[in-house]
Design a protein that fits this description.
The protein is α/β, with parallel strands linked by helices and 228 residues long. It has a single domain, classed as Vaccinia Virus protein VP39 (Rossmann fold), CATH 3.40.50.150. 46% of the residues lie in helices and 21% in strands. The protein contains 9 helices and 7 strands, in the order H-H-H-E-H-E-H-E-E-H-E-H-H-H-E-E. The chain has a 7-stranded mixed β-sheet with strand order 3-2-1-4-5-7-6, with helices on both faces. Strand 1, helix 4 and strand 2 form a beta-alpha-beta unit. The mean pLDDT is 90.
Length: 228
């Protein structure tokens, strides 16, 4: 699993160019992916949401826009990234390690994490912590990269390991931060492996929904309601 110190340093170094680079590398698809996630949240009408590993706040901002009655808190362990989130309009930000969230049990009815779980040092520990801060019946939504199947897999891996690091390095001046990206995606559990991991951490009704040919996926899990 990823080294936390390296990950935090890498994100601190690319924070100033992070948003633009994401839009360029995904050809703008990352904007649509977050809108799809937030459209699901809007149906649930959450009152209090936590966006873990919020980074520069892209998903938190989208939730604020679409769920105006919801209090959204953006947390991340990289202060440099969160400074950008605050400057872009995220109302509540908090520097916090996802493995040790400074919130009481059952504090949120929705927890989201977009392109962040993959960078955490211990996936099960992070998921159990997200489970802890969810109220019974609350939902976890994960958005992250995956490896597509079929004919798209080979060209995507070529782009991921050879084209993307060069392009990102040119945009940010930090090519090594993006050379790490391909390996992290290869190692990250996806599809059935992710839903099984969610269920092993206590979540129920875990689902996986691929987007854009399987380049990314949305995973959902629910903390069981208390027995009557």
């Amino acid at each position: 699993m990823p080294d936390a110190v390296y990950v935090r340093d890498a994100f601190a170094r690319i924070a100033d160019r992070y948003v633009l680079t994401n839009h360029v590398l995904s050809c703008g698809a990352d904007i649509w992916w977050r809108k799809v996630v937030t459209a699901r949240l809007r149906q649930w009408q959450p009152a209090r949401a936590l966006d873990v590993a919020s980074g520069t706040g892209d998903l938190a901002l989208e939730i604020q826009r679409q769920c105006q009655d919801c209090e959204v808190i953006a947390s991340d362990f990289c202060a440099e990234m969160l400074a950008h989130a605050a400057s872009r309009g995220v109302r509540h930000t908090l520097v916090a390690d996802a493995l040790h969230l400074p919130f009481p049990d059952g504090d949120f009815d929705v927890v989201t994490v977009a392109f962040g779980l993959r960078n955490m040092a211990d996936y099960p520990a992070a998921l159990r912590e997200m489970y802890r801060v969810l109220q019974p019946g609350g939902r976890l939504v994960i958005l992250d990269f995956a490896l597509p199947g079929g004919w798209l897999r080979a060209p995507y891996r070529l782009y991921l390991h050879h084209v993307l690091p060069r392009l990102a390095g040119w945009l940010t001046g930090q090519r090594d931060a993006y050379e790490y990206l391909g390996g992290s995606i290869e190692a990250f559990p996806s599809g059935l492996a992710m839903t099984q991991l969610l269920e092993s951490c206590g979540f129920r009704a875990a689902t996986a929904s691929p987007l854009t040919g399987g380049v990314v996926a949305i995973y959902e899990g629910t903390r069981p309601s208390l027995a009557m």
